[in-house]
């Protein structure tokens, strides 16, 4: 492995990604579980997308939203993990300016799009349980189409300035990013300019959008829980909650990994610097790998659709 000290600080025309600066000797070993998780994430999400596409009984709004979530997971995995594995296996550390800022935009935008998708899915479950008779008239294919447009437009509009602001900074000499991916903080702190506004914009935007999504998700499940507790029929409450179980588990995966990542970044001085780097990578792997599996295991219709797909092969 090439150590960071061997790189020169020539005029910046590209960036060099230095994964785990303190533990480069075991990067090859780490690549094995990451490769398996990557293959699992890609295979599971592609299988889920094909199943929903081919199985007519799954052509419903709830499964369309799940398809969107799988698409977002696939794009996030392809944006981050192949480059990380190329660094581990072939020492291909260089990344062009345009590729770095494109990766930065996709990571920020698509993670926020996932959060927004979870919020729309929570509203779907709220209507299904609290207003079951009105569900077919409220959650329609047109609703899903409008929701998809809102998810894409909102997050693209608010997160496009993040890489633009970062790309407009002056990078005088230092081009070594001590990370596996082009995060805004890792890149912008290499600049010789003041990056206060850059950091403040991302912080305010991320917390505003993700925070509002989380608040709406909590409100939706509060109303759902309140409605379920009113159900008198035996077993009806458990059945109603089971329809939300898979969605709640997915939110838990997404939120827990994100929360741990935020906490470790805030406590950066108290923990090894390689820990946040590893958690950032795992955040792009663990939820994408587990999301389709959870729905496949817990949802009878999807399980039956996957079995039909396997019989065709």
UniProtKB/TrEMBL annotation:
Keywords, in A-Z order = G-protein coupled receptor, Membrane, Olfaction, Receptor, Sensory transduction, Transducer, Transmembrane, Transmembrane helix
Record-level GO BP terms:
cellular response to lipid
Coiled-coil residues: none
What domain of life is recorded for the organism?
Eukaryota
Query: Which segments constitute the G-protein coupled receptors family 1 profile domain?
Result: 44-295
Asked if the record carries the keyword Transmembrane, the reply is yes
> Which cellular compartments is it found in?
Membrane
Q: Which GO terms describe its molecular function?
A: G protein-coupled receptor activity; olfactory receptor activity
* Cited InterPro entries: GPCR_Rhodpsn (IPR000276), GPCR_Rhodpsn_7TM (IPR017452), Olfact_rcpt (IPR000725), OR51/52/56-like (IPR050402)
Task: Supply the Pfam families for this chain.
Answer: 7tm_4
The record's annotation in Gene3D superfamilies points to: Rhodopsin 7-helix transmembrane proteins (1.20.1070.10)
Identify the GO cellular component terms for this protein. Answer: plasma membrane
Transmembrane segments in this chain: where? 30-51, 63-89, 95-113, 204-225, 245-267
Q: How does it sit in the membrane?
A: Multi-pass membrane protein
Known role? Putative odorant or sperm cell receptor.
Name recorded for this polypeptide:
G-protein coupled receptors family 1 profile domain-containing protein
Name the species this protein comes from.
Answer: Pipistrellus kuhlii
